[in-house]
Amino acid sequence: MADTNRKTSHTCKISLQGAALLNDPQWNKGSAFTEEERQIFKLRGRLPCKVNTLEEQIKRAYDQLQQHDTPLKKNSFLESLRVQNWILYYALVQKYLKELMPIVYTPTEAEAISNYSHLYRRSEGLYLSFPNAETMEEDFLDQVKGRDIDLIVVSDAEAILGIGDQGVGGVAISIAKSVIYTLVGGIDPARTLPVALDVGTNNKELLDDDIYVGWRHNRVRGKDYDEFVDKFVQLVKKHVPNGLLHFEDFGVTNAQRLLNRYQEDYAVFNDDMQGTGAVTLAALMSAVGITKTKLSDQTIVIYGAGSAGLGVARQIRDAMVILDGMDKEEATRRFHLVDKDGLVTKSLVDKAQHAGWAEFQRNDDEAQEGTSLCDVVKRSKCTILIGTSTHAGGFTEEVVKEMTRNNAHPIILPLSNPTKLVEAHPQDIIKWSDGKALIATGSPFDACDLPNGQKAIIAECNNALIYGGIGHGAILARAKKVSDGMLIAAVQRLAQLSPALKSHQGETGKEGNVQDAEGNLPPLLPDFETAPDTNFEVSIAVAQCAIDEGLARIDFDPSQLREKADISRWQPVYPRYTYDANGYGES
User: Fold this and answer.
1) Separation between Cα atoms, residue 218 and residue 136, nearest integer Å
2) C-beta neighbour count of 12 within 10 angstroms
3) End-to-end Cα distance, the chain
4) Which helix (H) or strand (E) covers residue 229, if one does?
5) Please, what is the Cα angle at 392 between 308 and 452, to 5 degrees?
6) Given this model, what pLDDT does residue 252 score?
7) What are the residue numbers of the active site?
8) Is there a cis peptide before residue 499, judged by omega within 30 degrees of 0?
9) Angle, CA 522 vertex, CA 517 and CA 524 arms, to 5°
10) Comparing C-alpha atoms, which of 246, 222, 225, 245 is closest to residue 235?
11) For residue range 292-345, what is the model confidence (pLDDT) as tens digits?
């Protein structure tokens, strides 16, 4: 099928007419169909006579959105809009991106997912259920055949957005993630496929819920689970050979294991294991640039040793090796992981039977000096403290003051979200560190007061600042895999765009001073409002790295990379339509 990328000068040949066209969200323009289009496509009597512009539609939709008084109701309204008119939905959310991101994704989407069966109206995406494993290829081809797919987002829903096992409701996170790829990465929504792997659920509330629409069975584990997932991945490799496969919200026992199994054979990405680590690493590279140190100079404590914490640790560790030439074993020793039972030691690993912790385990004798977070911070004299624990208030005043005693500028990143689960409010960190801490958070926060009367603009370590660019870059390059080098290229480019680092380097102020034009402390990462342009720059760096590493399968000259990247960005604008019985929309 031909390219469906929307540009203002583009003309699409459409085979649908009348109600069929109005009911197809990919092609529906609603009241924006022109007089000529209304005549050609038999729409004149199906629409009020006023022809609206897209801007007028956006204004009306935004006004309608404001009439809903809760985030969940706004989420529901936007979902309804999306399944009616893609262009209007994406144009609206893109215009108010920073305001609406928490509505279409975390934290509101988590509430919507937890109520998935009760909010269910229509099917969307691909549902692959364990009882139907024998017909998986047939079911897969029903959705893929005849389509050009660039991106597949898949979830087994074991670890959804901090709310855990959500069974078949995981399809909603696959859909939401695909939406963000379009909003910030420019991926054509027609070339995405959200997938739910319904392997059962251990969520008793769902199992006992008569309304639950998924497979009512405990989660499949072991060999049966692995064979089911492998069958799916092999279908992806067979029928979508040049795409990107994004694993989302798999449980801690499977996330890294599946990534390790498939990442050398296909372009695979796991946002929990790699995206969180990548955006966190970019914030750290910005911070160490300001402190004029190197990653290899740091000692790091990570509070929360789940899939996100482990992903962060591995990403930073690998960067120490790749960028600073550190020995991998030595780099690994720079990390201290603390979970709910305390410091991760050999004994704790053996007791929990958590293989993912083994490479970062500390000797048992360290536990004799105390295993609490404060004990570990005090003993390790860490320079960086990262929170992925969802333990609200876990970074206490004592912990922050201990870090400040050992560091001129402690780097503190409370990354847990939503906001109510953050390890410490940035204003408290500033107070307890006498304004010395360099901070980034996992949720958005307002600017905070500094002791000198100025403001600190708090960076949000939002994965959507980087994974859209990683995905777009991998797709643009038709990469054979997503290499460590490609991830590091993404991180370096994002760090280069840091307002704080630019200020410190003299690009936006006096060299050596970290302040903006108003005298405020700028953030360690770009503002989320710039996410589409930020991800665009990231995508070029990723694609260029794929080319340099011999992983690209491009059909254009590398010198055209930026031009090709720009052309490939999907834009929410209405193209012109002409009728063609063999055009888009044919069955």
Assistant:
1) 20
2) 18
3) 13
4) helix 222-239
5) 100
6) 79
7) 105, 177
8) no
9) 150
10) 245
11) 999 999 999 999 998 789 889 999 999 999 999 999 999 999 999 999 989 999
